Amino acid sequence: MTDRSTALFTDRYELTMLEAALRSGTAQRRCVFELFTRRLSGGRRFGVLAGTGRLLDLIRDFRFDDDELRYLQDDKVVDAATLAFLKSYRFRGSVSGYREGELYFPGSPVLTIEGTFAEAVMLETLALSVLNYDSAVATAAARMAIAAGDRPLAEMGSRRTGERSAVAAARAAFIAGFDATSNLEAGRVWGIPTMGTAAHSFTLLHEREQDAFRAQIEALGTGTTLLVDTYDIRTGVDTAIRVAGPGLGGVRLDSGDLPIVAAAVRAQLDGLGATGTKITVTSDLDEYAIATLAAAPVDSYGVGTSLVTGSGTPTAGMVYKLVARQAADGSWVGVAKSSADKASKGGRKTAFRVRDAGTATQELIMVADGFEPAGTAPEDADARALQVPLIDGGDIDASFEGPAGVHAARAHHARVREELPVRALALSRSGPAIPTVFVDVA
Amino acid sequence: MTDRSTALFTDRYELTMLEAALRSGTAQRRCVFELFTRRLSGGRRFGVLAGTGRLLDLIRDFRFDDDELRYLQDDKVVDAATLAFLKSYRFRGSVSGYREGELYFPGSPVLTIEGTFAEAVMLETLALSVLNYDSAVATAAARMAIAAGDRPLAEMGSRRTGERSAVAAARAAFIAGFDATSNLEAGRVWGIPTMGTAAHSFTLLHEREQDAFRAQIEALGTGTTLLVDTYDIRTGVDTAIRVAGPGLGGVRLDSGDLPIVAAAVRAQLDGLGATGTKITVTSDLDEYAIATLAAAPVDSYGVGTSLVTGSGTPTAGMVYKLVARQAADGSWVGVAKSSADKASKGGRKTAFRVRDAGTATQELIMVADGFEPAGTAPEDADARALQVPLIDGGDIDASFEGPAGVHAARAHHARVREELPVRALALSRSGPAIPTVFVDVA
């Protein structure tokens, strides 16, 4: 691994478009791109935006250094004039968007990028990669958090997604309501609490289960959580309390029919006097399994595979579209393709969440024909403006980056989730919880 | 971004187990861990192993530098003795495994890690992250390549997965039979051919479609591929040939009912004398859509979302299990947990692909009780040994790394796919194409 620029996390066609635009004189036309999703995949009732703070970090490192330029030259990806342009490239445009942790619906302009065509077109792949993956995980995480109610949730899916996506997944899950992660890099980089004690291999390393438990307790204290299902669960629980005493912090169950097993283990623990010992379950959970366990005596959940793969919807399906640009005479014009099933709506969007007695009723999107924002929501409505400035003329607002940005996003998500109508909290497949209403402001 | 160690792409419990084992004196026991999948998720008939070469690179960078140690100390993840151990940690054990690009089946020991418990337990998360994601993509890619037959396939899904997983996905798809990628970083790092010309935004940047086509052709020549579905496809094709002439390289269709649209476009192109102009289709393809297009006049496919998300199976479901260890007296013993539905088979495995007249008939796995490999396959069988050494006492075999490793894996995959029985090539859900047979060698 070397200290890398992020500039080649980019589809080749962005650079070939740049080359063609530099030649034809259109590269310097000012443009507005918007990032949004046409629908909520998987019958979701809302989406949760995540990745914005991470994207800002990555845009900071989006530059063409010697390694990148040499590759583009050697592989003849672009011509010499384009290479010269890339050498001094920095994004000097502006970006606004929904706050990280905010809810979104079909058509919500979660990110708006303004700049010359040359500078804005190049961020397409990077912005989509980050927001599509992170939002898919955050959306699944929010559903799991709703299902879990007051019980804590830990993210432990690193092993079931790419090694760096794992860090992003831990971050997205924390924003959407998870309480901790097993991933140490997420702890280091994003300030997320980490958790974890032992795997089955630790028990198997020892001659007897009791030897493993004793070793763990000597190192981590009786407040630790012992994994009791390597062999027979009933024997494992007995051994755990015999070794640790009734003050044992917790036991973890990673297999079996969890509602039944959890009830039996709770009764066994109580019978042994270990009434304060908590039960954590971690076997192949998703939001539906968590809901099924609501009445079982479970104290916390660990979720892996289904979380980091978006629980059946591994990508948020967002797209990055040119919606307005300058014409040859300098005037602004809204633009949109009209491809079958993929038509989009031209013009710059300004978005509001309309509420009635504190409950969201509508995603209101005012559409301007050109560059200028389309003004304000109707004065008689309780409407919350959804977009905030993120990058101004190339200057990144650092308050959205790093651990502070993550914790602010988590707090924002908790607040805005309270606005959701009750029907949005159901887990079944359905349409968006509130309608998206476009209003043209000519 | 800073120049990073990979040591914290790790679940916290690996370090807490290390701490407990260092205290109890079991950390130096020699161990054998195996990485395998219990089943082929998604009704797949075979799996394709990918990620091995990438994993070797990452193991090379698995070290605890000041940043990592400071975090582990500040967050009180482990005690001082464990920090001291980690400071000088390097993996000095040995690793063997299936060649990258090889097929696998339930129970196939695709990676075997030998070393002390302390050094081997820490690679669990990293090894699983890499092989689970990359193999899920490679397995989907192989099915698409089978469906595409002789028509070339391009990977263009970077925007639908995490920005670094995107690079891994391009690499895995290439190994499993794709011909090119849109991802420039995959081109730079892994030597994979890149492709791509223009998006709809390039057409929308210009006043008229013909202006955009002319600009693209001036930059990239008439051999380029024009995207003709921004507005009306029929008009787009007419404009394309009018601007480029009948020698136009290709047109790309990214929307609509592709079998019907492709046939209409082919007839239109032929009518305009552009009989050599190729048709590329790229709209929401997966292996089933590709199969549906077999009779349509399509020349090549571009695949995005479904490929990088494993076409419904976004993780390969592999696990990392302790299968043998030294006892207190130095003797070796096979170990396995017996958890409900997750029981595994102890003892070190040696794997062979048994063939009959060149066609695979069986995954034969010889199981030893302890450390020593379990010998050879029956002499009367045509059996190909599947495991090769990858790391020997900490020394990584560099021939599996970098672009050379990727190209060797691609060639190996093409060879071994020829061994599959015909029933393995069907796309429908079913069981493994060949049975896995375990033979205990006591």
From TrEMBL, chains A, B:
Nicotinate phosphoribosyltransferase N-terminal domain: residues covered: 8-132
EC code(s) of this entry: 6.3.4.21
Keywords annotated in UniProt: Glycosyltransferase, Ligase, Phosphoprotein, Pyridine nucleotide biosynthesis, Transferase
UniProt xrefs under InterPro entries: Aldolase_TIM (IPR013785), NAPRTase_N (IPR040727), Nic_PRibTrfase-Fam (IPR007229), Nic_PRibTrfase_pncB (IPR006405), Nicotinate_pribotase-like_C (IPR036068)
PTM comment text: Transiently phosphorylated on a His residue during the reaction cycle. Phosphorylation strongly increases the affinity for substrates and increases the rate of nicotinate D-ribonucleotide production. Dephosphorylation regenerates the low-affinity form of the enzyme, leading to product release.
The protein's enzyme class: ligase
GO molecular function: glycosyltransferase activity
Highest rank taxon of the organism: Bacteria
Catalytic reactions of this protein: 5-phospho-alpha-D-ribose 1-diphosphate + nicotinate + ATP + H2O = nicotinate beta-D-ribonucleotide + ADP + phosphate + diphosphate
Pathway: Cofactor biosynthesis; NAD(+) biosynthesis; nicotinate D-ribonucleotide from nicotinate: step 1/1
Any Pfam family: NAPRTase_N
Job description of the protein: Catalyzes the first step in the biosynthesis of NAD from nicotinic acid, the ATP-dependent synthesis of beta-nicotinate D-ribonucleotide from nicotinate and 5-phospho-D-ribose 1-phosphate.
NCBIfam families: NAPRTase_put, PRK09243.1-5, PRK12484.1
Protein family: Belongs to the NAPRTase family.
Name of the protein in its database record: Nicotinate phosphoribosyltransferase
Source organism of the structure: Microbacterium kribbense
